[in-house]
Amino acid sequence: MSGSRRIPFLDLVTPHQELEEELVSVFRNALRTAGFVGGPIVEQFEWEFANFCDAGHCVGVGNGTDALRFALIAAGVQPGNIVVTVPNTFIATTEAISQAGARPDFVDVDERTYSMDARKLQEYIETQCCLDRETGKLLNRRTGSRVTGIVPVHLYGQMADMDPILELAERHNLLVIEDACQAHGASYYSRRENRWKKAGSMGVAAAFSFYPGKNLGACGEAGAVTTNDPKLAGRVRMLRDHGQTQKYSHEIEGYNGRLDAIQAGFLRVKLQQLAEWNKKRRTHACRYGELFESQTDRIILPYESPLNKAVYHLYVVRVKNRDQLQARLAQADITTQIHYPIPLHLQAPYAPLGHKIGDFPVSEKAAAEILSLPMYPQLEQWQQERIVQEVTNSLVVETAGRGKPELKPAALSPEPC
Ligand SMILES: *Cc1c(COP(=O)(O)O)cnc(C)c1O
Q1: Which residues of 61-85 are buried (b: 16+ CB within 10 A; e: fewer)?
Q2: pLDDT by residue (tens digit) across 227-244?
Q3: What's the pTM?
Q4: Of 56, 58, 193, 239, which cross-links 70 as Cys (Cβ 3.0–4.6 Å)?
Q5: d(CA 155, CA 115)
Q6: Cα 49–50–51 angle (5° rounding)?
Q7: 215 lines ligand 1 (CB under 6 A)
């Protein structure tokens, strides 16, 4: 009876069956009105998603990679600049930086959350950058290029530690563009502002992906930029539509990067479910935590900081014998994945940056030990129980190490060049 025992990594069939009538009627309306690109449905979705993110504006685009690229360009990142991000992310983050004409530089991630370690960012600024004597701008010491942006990635559904990142950005006049492609609806308690802030409302701009497997997914490709800056939103609108402000009046060269109206219609239907779906993901994460309770000397569970409400795009655990565990789960008909097996600084396209093994040890260690277990709103209790049972049976005694965070000396300023 292995068919019924099979536990997929993700269930994209059930939610679409549940919403089939509404989704089909979106399609039918599009056929009847021939409204395929742009129009009121796109605008309605943009308005609703901006509201959902507590952001002033939302601009729908073709996918998450376009969203990142347009956000970077519209925020003012220039060709030749350096934009700092993390090695432990999907390649789209750095592709977008390169496609905006900039160069990615990496800083390592936090051992517990796997997202940007603000102390490493500070260390990067202090040890690898200097201040241009004439302009006071931040330069990379080695290349002399201007460092203009930071892309923190809200990985696995938990927001990066934004307060210290934003503080460093303000001090050094850097643009912060959130990669929120895995964090629709996540929130973070800002101690600076004394309130909860949503993913997509903290940087100068943020990028979202609506790839089908994301917490909010289209039935195809889609993405969006959110921002509180109306001018930046206007520039993204131009960029997505060949740089035009009016038909055939082109202020700049842009791209074909619009959000398709049918996808916007599908997204409106699914957006109504998103809060509920995220709640279910949080409940499942909580249940995994309970079920694994007696195993925590052998498996590291996701760490949700008290400043975060994560939306568990992925449920990522960490074990010493990861490959063996993954193989045994596969034998038991339980599908898992690795996000991501090779850190970006060791991937072929970034060889010219000259990195080697050991440059970002936290990302590298994580890449060798992390495993994403099945996580989706429709996951059932019996499935979680069986997953935890199978995992427990294959765990080795030795704990994967979660080192104590080592404290960095207090803020210094970069020296002049
Ligand atoms: C999915 C994803 C992207 C890219 O989104 P697409 O819609 O596939 O282009 C970018 N960054 C991260 C972290 C992602 O997970």
Answers
A1: bbbbbbbbbbbbbbbebeeebbbbb
A2: 999 999 999 999 999 999
A3: 0.94
A4: 239
A5: 6
A6: 85
A7: no
Collapsed DSSP state (helix, strand, coil) of residue 331: helix
Is the shortest distance between the CB of 93 and ligand 1 below 6 Å? yes
Ordered structural domains, the chain, with CATH? 14-269 (3.40.640.10), 275-394 (3.90.1150.10)
Task: Provide the 8-state DSSP code for 403.
Answer: P
Strand, coil or helix: 281: helix
Asked if residue 217 has its Cβ within 6 Å of ligand 1, the reply is no
90 lines ligand 1 (CB under 6 A): yes
353 φ/ψ sector (left φ>0, alpha ψ -120 to 50, else beta): alpha
Does residue 400 contact residue 319 with C-beta atoms inside 8 Å? yes
Ligand 1: centre distance to CA 312 (Å): 15
User: Residue 47 contacts by C-beta under 8 Å, 6 or more apart in sequence?
Assistant: 58
Q: Give buried/exposed letters for 148-179 (b at 16+ CB in 10 A, else e).
A: bbbbbbbbbbbbbbbbbbbebbeebebbbbbb
Ligand 1 atom with the shortest distance to the CA of 313: 15
